[in-house]
């Protein structure tokens, strides 16, 4: 479904799995070229050690690359599906403060994905996310493998 950046931002803000974990979409950049997300520490997402629960951090990082790529290609007129195929997370420091991450999708990333979708029908690539605390220290790194499929691709459409 084609939506605007504003509608997508507000939809993600009130989406219960993110909202109740205090995951807040600050902004979705024009053309779905990026996103800024805060993970606010609260009573609802603290673990035994008083840091942000790892599942909350993982939940925050999981949906955004597929969402952005999906909207980019839907707005370009493609009929695609997108999801996280796999993810890897490394916890480097406890999340004792609010955490934030920014994702940016470059023109080169889009061109690469478009080429692969038009020549092979499926795009699969791992994209990194660094998640920072309020002191600018990397607390978590996530690698999110994105899967895109061009539903209109056929071997003869090359």
Description of the molecule:
The two termini are 25 Å apart. The chain is α+β, with helices and mostly antiparallel strands and 158 residues long. Helices cover 30% and strands 35% of the residues. It contains five helices and six strands; from the N terminus they run ααββααββαββ. The model has no long low-confidence stretch (mean pLDDT 96). A six-stranded antiparallel beta sheet has the order 1-2-4-5-6-3. It has one domain (5-157): Hotdog Thioesterase (Thiol Ester Dehydrase, Chain A, Roll), CATH 3.10.129.10. Strand 1 (23-28) and strand 2 form a beta hairpin.
SS summary, helix count: 5
Strand content: 25-35%
Structural domain count: 1
Structural class: alpha+beta
Distance between the termini: 25 Å
> Residue ranges: pLDDT <50 for 5 or more in a row?
none
Q: Radius of gyration, Cα only, in angstroms?
A: 16 Å
Helix percentage: 25-40%
Please give the largest β-sheet: 6 strands, antiparallel
CATH C-level name? Alpha Beta
Total strand count, please?
6
Overall, the morphology is elongated
Pfam family, one: DUF4442
Organism: Mucilaginibacter ximonensis
GO molecular function: hydrolase activity
Keywords: Hydrolase
Q: What's the short version?
A:
With 158 residues, the protein is α+β, with helices and mostly antiparallel strands. The chain has helices spanning 5-14, 16-19, 54-61, 64-75, 107-119; strands at 23-28, 34-39, 80-91, 99-104, 122-133, 138-150.
């Amino acid at each position: 479904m084609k939506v605007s950046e504003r509608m997508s931002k507000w939809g993600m803000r009130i989406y219960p799995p993110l909202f109740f974990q205090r995951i807040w979409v600050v902004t979705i950049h024009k053309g779905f070229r990026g996103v800024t997300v805060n993970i606010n520490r609260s009573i609802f997402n603290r673990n035994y050690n008083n840091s942000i629960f790892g599942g909350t951090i993982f939940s925050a990082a999981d949906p955004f690359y597929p969402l952005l790529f999906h909207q980019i290609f839907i707005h370009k007129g493609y009929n695609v599906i997108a999801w996280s195929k796999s993810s890897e997370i490394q916890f480097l420091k406890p999340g004792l403060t609010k955490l934030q991450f920014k994702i940016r999708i470059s023109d080169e990333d889009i061109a690469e994905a478009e080429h692969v979708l038009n020549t092979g029908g499926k795009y699969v690539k791992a994209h990194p996310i660094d998640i920072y605390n309020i002191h600018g220290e990397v607390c978590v790194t996530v690698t999110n493998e994105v899967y895109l499929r061009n539903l209109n691709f056929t071997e003869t459409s090359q």
